[in-house]
Amino acid sequence: MKTISMKYGKTKIDVSIPQENLLGIIASNKEIRNKTEEEVVLEALDKPIESNKLREIVNKGDKVCIVISDITRAWQKMNFYLPYIVEELEKADIREEDIIFLCATGTHRKQTKKEHGILLGEKLAKRFQVIDHDCMDKDNLVYLGTTSFGTPVSINKIALECDHIIITGAIVYHDMAGWGGGRKSILPGISSYESIMANHALALNKKLGEGSNLKVRCGNAATNPIHQDMLEAAKLVKPSYLFNVIMDEKGNIIKAVAGDYIKAHEIGRRIVDEIDGVVINEKADLVIASSGGYPKDIDLYQATKTLSNAKEAAKENGTIIILSECVEGVGSDDLQKIIQDYENNVEREKAVRENFTVAKYIGYSMAEAAKSFNIIFVSGIDKSILKNINIPVVSTIDEALEITYKEKGRNLKTYLMPCGANTLPKLTCQVSK
């Protein structure tokens, strides 16, 4: 037997598979770490991509808005790198009162004061407050124009009133935008609800019944309309500077990119592909994937990212077991309703199109996946929530395997994905194209 420990919430679960059935462990490619996290951050700030150093971009008296991610992305360790960005600004004589931290909540909930402290870190939290973006507050949004995709772009007024906008975050695979980081700090990060919904509605094909747009997927930027639309929105804002980190499977900052918000992000994407794009020679009968523990499995909304990646390693009608504690439950009423309140996917798709929300689409995409794969969740969420789309919820990996072996037999070619929210399996034939 091959046994590995996978993260589950703030604990771990041991997963054991017969050695002869194991096709492989899909994990990030080994990165030789010869620099500390501090060295990585300082090097990025010292060698920005197609840009002057941050201290050379800003001037004394300028007002600077630093856009940061919310608590669901605390794993990005912004509390580690933000002090270095503040130091850069201070070297240009930017006053403390002229630095604003704006949390790119998108459509997510507001943060607590304690969560703000986690995001900034103890020292910065004593000096600065965090303002949560409110996508529904029309009085604090400014319309900038409409993209070629028809998305009306309205952006947080506080950010636009500053002389400089610095966007921060992490670059990872993203199931809708192709990639996290970069332009996502603007749209959806600090955009209006209408802007966010119009952008994310591009995830569906044009006609009812055609379902999801296959170009909207992890790792695709070139033809992904959501990514392209986000980039157009960011160009209307013209951020002065980007700082994005790249993490390893243990949660360490191993790379960082800084500088021009377009070019630096492009290079960051290539780095992620080299590290987290994992080539496989065949698909499996069974894929067991962990989201990577808390907060990546904080709720079902976040856990769906793991399912998106795991699908790439499973055969049609294969089994996917997702390990996600979901301590905060579903994470969205819309997601739960689209799963529970409709009897088939055509009805779900129609409901998503009539009043698009990201959460509704995520629920719909789960229901789509459940038609193509046998999905089982090892989770603490209420079992009844996923019953209507035929996804069983169990408490232990042993229960999940018992269901699988009973339905499919025991001789199943299997992949294990200990960091499923991050790693993207790529079939050999797809890589060669």
UniProtKB/TrEMBL annotation:
Residues 8-206 form the LarA-like N-terminal domain. NCBIfam families: Ni_dep_LarA (NF033504). Keywords: Coiled coil. One of its GO terms (molecular function) is lactate racemase activity. Gene3D superfamilies: 3.40.50.11440, 3.90.226.30. This is Nickel-dependent lactate racemase. Residues 332-359 form a coiled coil. The keyword Disulfide bond does not apply. It comes from Paramaledivibacter caminithermalis (strain DSM 15212 / CIP 107654 / DViRD3) (Clostridium caminithermale). Residues 281-421 form the Lactate racemase C-terminal domain. The keyword Coiled coil applies. It holds the Pfam family LarA_C. InterPro entries: LarA-like (IPR048068), LarA-like_C (IPR043166), LarA-like_N (IPR018657), LarA_C (IPR048520), Ni_dep_LarA (IPR047926).
